[in-house]
Design a protein that fits this description.
This protein has 214 residues and is mainly α. The protein contains 13 helices and no strands. It is globular.
């Protein structure tokens, strides 16, 4: 785990102080709400994406037959999965031109940075883990080792798939073309066929996509 101190230089000073204040509170719901307020202030489209990801991930869990408590845990983790984008300047997150290598590096770090933020703020270990792992399996340009996929938390795919579906439909990301529902369904089904995502999520995911409209 990257220490929180290592990412402080990349944070807005006010944001860093407010994350520090959260260490004095115990209530997870309060901390979740405050972290989401920070994300809204930093970059509203990312806030929108996070809330949509939580909706999709929780519904996917419901369709897969998970318990109410598991659905709640997944929803919380999905809400917080992009906290690491607090280290990425908002103008980069909204950039319409191609990203520089440095900007790409910052964005690629957001899962690690997010886990550091959540851990420091005292969020529950499951939220930290799912934040750290949420990109395992959903990159189009990486050959995921079977050993890494096997070590992934069993609830991580819910957040990953919710993230993929929301991102695919995101018309606010000017530097990336949104995908059609057919395209995202084909991509996820291909990944399931490759063993990247578990087969028991295929029918729930396809059902979820069938209910979604632009």
């Amino acid at each position: 785990m990257v220490p929180f101190g290592d990412i402080v230089p990349f944070l807005d000073p006010r944001t860093a102080r407010e994350i520090g204040f959260l260490t004095t509170f115990e209530n997870q719901s309060y901390k979740t709400a405050q972290l989401m307020n920070l994300l809204w202030r930093h970059h509203p489209p990312t806030f929108k994406h996070a809330t949509e990801t939580a909706t999709f991930a929780a519904e996917l869990a419901r369709l897969a037959g998970e318990t109410d408590q598991t659905m709640a845990d997944i929803s919380q983790a999905a809400l917080l999965h992009d906290q690491g984008k607090l280290v990425v300047p908002p103008e980069v997150l909204s950039k319409t031109d191609p990203l520089t290598e440095e900007e790409k590096y910052l964005i690629r770090l957001h899962d690690v940075a997010g886990a550091a933020i959540l851990s420091y703020a005292g969020m529950n270990p499951l939220a930290v883990t799912l934040c750290l792992e949420h990109h395992i399996g959903n990159s189009r340009s990486f050959d995921w080792p079977a050993a890494l996929l096997a070590r992934r938390h069993p609830l991580t795919p819910y957040v990953s798939l919710g993230d993929m579906l929301s991102a695919a439909m995101d018309h606010d990301r000017e530097h990336k073309e949104p995908l059609s529902l057919v395209e995202i369904t084909d991509e996820v089904n291909d990944k399931i066929d490759q063993g990247i995502f578990p087969a028991y999520l295929q029918e729930p995911f396809n059902t979820l996509v069938a209910r979604v409209s632009y």
